[in-house]
Amino acid sequence: MLRFRILFFMMLFSLVALAQEAKLTAKVSKNKLGVNQRLRIEFSINKQGGDHFTPPSFANFKVVGGPSQSVSQSWINGKVSFSQSYTYIIQPKRKGELTIGAATIEIGGKTIKSDPIKVIVLDAVELPKNPNDPDYIAQQNIHLVAEVSKSRPYVGEGIYVEYRLYVSENISVYDTNVTEAPQYNGFWNQDIKINGFPVKMGKYNGEDYRYIVLQKALLIPTKTGKLEIDPMKMDIVIGVPTGRADFFGNVITRNIRREFASPKKVIRPKSLPLENKPENFTGAVGDFNFAVTLSKDILKANESSQIKVGVTGKGNLKLFELPEVTTPAELEKYQPERKEKVSVSSSGISGTVSDLYTVVPQYKGKYKIPNVTFSYFNPKEEKYYTLSSEDLYVDVIEGKNLITNTSKADNSLQKQTVKLTGKNFRYIQTKTVFKPINNEDFFKSNGYYLLLFLPLIAIPVGIFIAKQNKARSNDVVGNRLRKAEKLAKKYLSEAKKQLGNKEAFYEALERALHNYLKAKLGIETADISKEKITQILQDKNVDNATNKQFIDVLKSSDFARYTPITSTEMEAELERAKEVIIQLDKQL
Fold it and tell me: For 13-122, which CATH class?
């Protein structure tokens, strides 16, 4: 019975494999190579029964090794797969765009062909003395790449940068650590959230690689000129094959740690055109809709209504001012409240921003709120657009009447008869009668003794307080420490509120450190590198230990955004930042 079942499954496996459509595919290890390099080409057939395999002629190539054959079969979740491959190692004989012809194989009386493959052969490259050198293998098989969606955007136009780590199938990656995060000087930037780090398949320089997206950010240039995006740097532990095998034939690998850096990217933003630029343009770049609405248009005096000025669409929603609403003097208008409901993705910022004005009428009547205009630049169409709202009307149905002064053509005043109403004019008394306030004698009362002995008690208390203040004033070190602690708490208060929220906490922490230096040194440090900050602090005679501690806290704020962090670690980082501000304040 058992033998029958085994035989049944083997027959079923063979029938399913035979039912597949036969296909012969060709795959090369690289599409670009030097004239002195070699490449591997593999021909695979996905169906059993293949016979009389004929390789291409390999014109313009020298066959260095092969063919080597391999067969694999698998049955996973009821799906059968079969593969039989023929592998060759070849080397080009000349430079240029060379074509590897089609291979053929016969199956069931039919001849199956593979597709031709083109490879580009360049000048000879420098080869290592030892092709199995782990550093050389790592360099050839791992690439840290920064990809930018657009290198010539307009000022205010959103682009994105994506950092990818490409790894070939020949090696393994065991650990990664970002040692230096990229800097985006000259850009408004916002990190784009990545859900996990899924491994994807893609091509790099024409070759097949596995890759993961490490970081993605939306960038909006705020000025023209040559803007550089500094590299991302990483330490990676790699398992590379040594070219040797163990007793069982398994490839022996060696783990090495190597630093990789993405290439520096240069962005050259274009200035917005001056031609047809509206006078009320405030920097909005994108594609927007504009509306001004009123929450209530019929109300009573002293009853409030809200005017909403809103812009909806996709673009630099956080980087421009909304137009201001003008109201009649009879409508009391308060400062607007900004509302934002936006999301950030690789395609840009989208959502709605609005200003809410509260208005309160004082008098009965009907009032007009004039229309408002809003202008923006569309980078895709390279045109300015101006949108206008409609006039709004507020009808106040209850309240005091508005008193207006009327005059004749000669501006002469008209006399009116004085009317007596109520108690407008009352009798003025001409005599006064004095009465004693009270009959109690202040002498020997409780208040009398309290005032008598109060100076005697206040004198020693005052002397004691004066001595304490004098001692406190003489304590120069203590005063500086207390002042520094107070200053540190002031700058770090926002970060303390964000404990538990990783992204917001580290943004507030980094902003606090930059704001402290800005207030203390009178310079903007958010747009300069950490090396420049180190040099500035050295010029201010800050000792190396404190200088290094300050830079370490800044680096930790960058790195912690990409690693899991607990609330306890955030609290420790907050105390560390507080201590470094105190130490800096003592020396500055």
Answer: mainly beta
